[in-house]
Amino acid sequence: MLKRMKHYVNNITNSVSLKKAGISAMLGILTVTFLMPAPGPATKKPEEISLETKAAENKEQVEVQVGAIEPTETRNVREPQISRGNLNRNEVILLAMVIEGEAADEPYKGKVAVGSVILNRIEDNKFPDTLSGVVYERLAFESVMNNQYKRPLTEESIKAAQEAIGGWDPTEGALYFWNPVTAKSKWVWSRPITDQIGRHVFAK
């Protein structure tokens, strides 16, 4: 009888131990579950982040470059001109010399204008048809008469000669120019005036 009672007690003890072990295991699982961090957004690989950064930088650079470009319609672009023919080096220098002699103190546009008048005369049948013929025509240019055209050349006068040869004519085809302060001829004032640039009046 005593043996049976001991066996019965042992069975109950073992059963309670198993239940406690099961409860502990369940508690452990629940604890691990609650302590685990909640799933967050997927982490991008370093190479993916690098590519996105480069793409953003390239976009910014393109936008800056496009913004820096001035619209074509707002630019100060000179209209294409027709070349006045090919002059040799000595003729370019001669033209620049007369420009220097006649318009040394004039603005750059005024220098080009004087060169244009000389070239316009070559193309007009009332004047000689060569550069030297126009330049050395009697009483044509004051600076040639008093040798002021032989003064040291400036880079600006050479460039003005090249632009006039290249076709830029600010005078709109003028054949004459004069200083209105010193001009005494009534005849020149009878010519159709095209413009005044600096201290020179230009006329056809």
TrEMBL record:
Organism of this sequence: Desulforamulus aquiferis
Protein name stated in the entry: Cell wall hydrolase
GO molecular function (one): hydrolase activity
TM region(s), chain numbering: 21-40
Keyword list, A-Z: Hydrolase, Membrane, Transmembrane, Transmembrane helix
Family annotation (Pfam families): Hydrolase_2
Domain Cell wall hydrolase SleB: 106-203
Keyword Heme: no
Source domain of life: Bacteria
